[in-house]
UniProtKB/TrEMBL annotation:
The keyword Cytoplasm does not apply. This is NADP-dependent oxidoreductase. SUPFAM superfamilies: GroES-like, NAD(P)-binding Rossmann-fold domains. InterPro entries: ADH-like_N, ER, GroES-like_sf, NAD(P)-bd_dom_sf, YIM1/Zinc_Alcohol_DH_Fams. Keywords: Oxidoreductase. It is an enzyme of class 1 (oxidoreductase). It comes from Lentzea kristufekii. Residues 13-331 form the Enoyl reductase (ER) domain.
Length: 341
């Protein structure tokens, strides 16, 4: 099957190689999915460039890609919830990535039925950012009606989804964006919009319950200062904390390293009587099913920036790398049955 492959780690002009690889094996509890579309994420760039080698030691050559929508073509003997012909979507487990390909084998537990009202391309844009927002706001922060949440980079992939989810949960939402995207984030539900080129959010926001951080260390430290005592800072851009080492199943090796990496922010958080958590989103088919219900109820809609053809996967990654995408970038791997007829 055709796929886009990482042959080596590296940041300087590194691109994926288009090539042929064996079709993936299907275990007892696995589902073989024919890929119709794959979402493109900043995570793909970080993996390609080797930024996660310490915690995600993929051995080149390997197929890249962390979001998928497609059709079930075969199921393992132990699979009960899916059958051939089902339209599905997923963020595969971190140890089984590879959606920039014609087929991928995914654990049944990580898979969900595709929202009926979405195209394959729209569905492929959802899993990683949707699960990130869900696990940050619902699972970790426990965001409640009447609380205030600050979601950084509101026009990005995670931001566009998180704003809508937070509004559904009944929160007051603040976000940052550029002038060009103010109308977009307001349409998605943002109550307080800060143009980061004109204003410093630290001078505008006070006594927030939750911050979802997705930017650099400087922004992370400033974010602590907009929280009220008892508030929660959830970061998806680091630094990783000791609890993350346990989640990876490598606590004795990585916990001391992550304790050092996160020492400064954890100490500052304690001083301000707030909590700090690092989130590396994990695959979860049950949570994705909850997200499907919200999408089909028209509570949340995906925001798509551009759709690239499969052969232009490297160009799609380059576009994400510019940091200027509004919402998500998607690669279209094959036509749906309706388009082919």
């Amino acid at each position: 099957m055709r796929a886009f492959i990482v042959d080596r780690y590296g940041k300087s002009g590194n691109t994926l190689r288009a090539g042929d690889v064996p079709e993936p094996e299907v275990g007892q509890h696995d589902v073989l999915v024919q890929v119709h579309a794959a979402g493109v994420n900043a995570l793909d760039l970080k993996i390609r460039d080797g930024e996660f080698k310490l915690v995600l030691p993929y051995r080149p050559p390997f197929v890249l890609g962390n979001d998928v929508a497609g059709v079930v073509v075969r199921v393992g003997a132990g699979v009960r919830r899916f059958q051939p012909g089902d339209e599905v979507y997923a963020r595969p487990d971190k140890d089984r990535i590879g959606t920039f390909a014609e087929f991928i084998s995914i654990s049944e537990d990580d898979l969900a039925l595709k929202p009926k009202r979405l195209t394959m391309e729209e569905a492929a844009s959802v899993p990683l950012v949707g699960l990130t927002a869900w696990q940050a706001l619902v699972e970790i922060a426990g965001l409640q009606k009447g609380q205030k949440v600050f979601i950084q980079a509101g026009a990005g992939g995670v931001g566009t989804f998180a704003i809508q989810l937070a509004k559904h949960l009944g929160a007051t939402v603040a976000t940052t964006t550029s002038t060009a995207n103010v109308d977009l984030v307001k349409r998605l539900g943002a109550d307080v919009v800060i143009d980061y080129r004109e204003d410093d959010f630290e001078t505008v926001l006070r006594d927030y319950d939750v911050v979802l951080n997705s930017l650099d260390d400087k922004t992370l430290m400033k974010s602590l200062r907009v929280l009220k005592p008892g508030g929660k800072l959830v970061s998806i851009s680091g630094p990783p904390d000791p609890a993350f080492a346990g989640e990876l199943g490598r606590p004795w090796i990585l916990r001391p390293v992550m304790r050092v990496l996160s020492h400064r922010v954890r100490k500052a958080a304690r001083r301000r009587q707030v909590s700090y958590s690092f989130l590396f989103m994990r695959a979860n088919g049950q949570q994705l099913g909850e997200i499907t219900s919200l999408i089909d109820a028209e509570i949340i809609e995906p925001v798509i920036d551009r759709i690239f053809p499969f052969e232009a996967t490297n160009e799609a990654l380059a576009h994400v790398q510019t940091g200027r995408a509004k919402g998500k970038v998607v690669v279209k791997v094959r036509n749906s049955p309706k388009e082919s007829s």
